[in-house]
Design a protein that fits this description.
Metallo-beta-lactamase, Chain A; 2 domains; 6-stranded mixed sheet; 15 helices; 21 strands
């Protein structure tokens, strides 16, 4: 009998991981890093609850740490199977995993473990990364990939970041195929650069993300206007705009929007620092895959408009270059990490948190327990890089740039499934948001969605 085990992102937003077994084949869909509180991140160091050497394949939805960040650790534990993803994600994975190794080497990612008096050991090494990459296969959207005589998989564009995928997985039960669909992270329609999520019309079981299951985003036009107003007001005061961004996806989106703001005349030649070697590498990968851009972005690349107000973008790859930004005022600084948990953004926050002229703009979801969430919730004072500082900067959350579909987007996508609607499991969301989305799914489609517990196993 086939089973589905929920190994992560259950009643929480990160650590996506789901094990499908059909008696002869074992497939792990995503192998994500857990982010958030110390209690939650401790899960990253637990041994796998299954034999990694018995897993035939790992299928990765997209190149974000909370979906792929533990794959090299699985390799260190004995996994030797296939790693399947899209071609673009395959190109982005070295950027992602190399950065984890680098952060471990600098000791930044060890601070939380030290505070718990744990022995500090790397999650994985560069050798583990290289081994995992040697097992990676990049596949195009829409191609059915056999994993075994009883199991096959196919990717569809999720519209979240370039290369992101919805996973369609078939397992054989006697004379009949059973189809599971994993939404991965679904993007919102009309988002810059990426194409809209592909509709799927058939499934027996659906594992659905629910990050924004309780709310709707502002329109893109409203989002661009709001960001333009906040940035313009801050720069006029002589303050700096700090934007914690995810290196893959969000930093490229923000640069796109800033350019749009100059084309509209809202900003005039602003100084912009992309202070992330990882984001710079990711941008290079994006540049090699223009075929995956949406129509508007492709047109702008092919025929760039004349822009006398174009932003002055500077890339700071080294730590020395990053520190030199300390002498700059009246600039826009994009730096990782997106939740403020580590990376170069903490250096900038330490310099500006007590400056009432400056502001911090969050453009992505802030997981409970993270530094970013504490700022959004109004914490003051806060401790950052060994210093306790009052929070005088203005804090803004602009979710219209989120790479996640909102409630309306999720409901619309689920509506694309034919009757009978699939049995639905909500993951990748906080419990209260899942509850709201579950009520809407039942109201609109009669779907009684469930919210699995961590490590719960379901017989299909």
């Amino acid at each position: 009998m086939a089973t589905l085990q929920f190994l992560g992102a259950t009643r929480s937003v990160t650590g996506s991981s789901f094990l499908v077994q059909d008696g002869t084949t074992r497939v792990l869909v995503d192998c994500g890093l857990v982010q958030g509180s110390a209690e939650m991140t401790a899960r990253n160091r637990l041994p796998s609850p299954f034999d990694p050497s018995a897993v035939d394949a790992v299928v990765l939805t997209h190149a974000h740490l909370d979906h792929t960040g533990l794959a090299p650790r699985l390799m260190a534990e004995g996994f030797r199977g296939r790693v399947l993803t899209t071609g673009i994600t395959k190109d982005l994975l070295p950027v992602l995993w190399d950065d984890v190794v680098r952060l471990q080497q600098t000791g930044r990612s060890r601070a939380r473990s030290r505070s718990l008096h744990e022995e500090v050991t790397p999650l994985y090494t560069q050798m583990d990364v290289e081994k995992t990459l040697s097992h990676c296969e990049g596949h195009p959207y829409g191609t059915v990939i056999p994993l075994s005589p009883s199991c096959r998989v196919r990717f569809a564009d999720a519209g979240h970041i370039l290369g992101s995928a919805i996973v369609e997985l078939w397992v054989r039960e006697g004379e009949k195929d059973r189809k599971l669909v994993f939404s991965g992270d679904l993007g919102q329609r009309g988002k810059p650069i990426v194409r809209d999520p592909v509709a799927i019309d058939e499934a027996d079981e659906l594992v659905l993300e629910s990050t924004y299951g309780d709310r709707n985003h502002k329109s893109m036009a409203e989002t661009i206007a709001e960001m333009g107003r906040v940035i313009a007001e801050t720069l006029a005061l002589g303050g700096s705009v700090l934007m914690p961004v995810y290196a893959i996806g969000r930093s490229q989106d923000v640069l796109y929007v800033i350019n749009q703001l100059t084309l509209k005349g809202i900003l005039d030649r602003p100084r912009v620092f992309l202070d992330s070697s990882m984001a710079i590498r990711a941008a290079e990968v994006y540049g090699r895959h223009l075929e995956a851009f949406d129509e508007e972005a492709s047109r702008l690349v092919r025929h760039p408009p004349t822009n006398v107000r174009a932003p002055r973008v500077m890339f700071t790859e080294t730590l020395a270059a990053s520190r030199s930004i300390a002498r700059v005022h009246g600039a826009i600084i994009l730096a990782g990490s997106g939740m403020g948990e580590g990376g170069r953004i903490q250096e900038h926050l330490a310099r500006h948190l007590d400056d009432s002229r400056s502001c911090v703009i969050f453009t992505g979801y802030q997981v409970a327990g993270t530094f970013g969430r504490r700022l959004v919730d109004g914490a003051t004072p806060v401790r950052v890089i060994g210093r306790t500082l009052p929070v005088k900067v203005r804090i803004h959350t602009i979710n219209g740039l989120s790479a996640h579909a909102d409630q309306a987007g999720l409901l619309e996508w689920v509506g694309g499934f034919r009757e009978p609607k699939p049995k639905t499991f909500l993951v990748h969301g906080e419990p209260e948001k899942m509850t709201v989305l579950a009520a809407e799914l039942e109201k609109r489609y009669g779907i009684k969605a469930s919210m699995p517990e961590w490590r719960e196993t379901l017989a299909l």
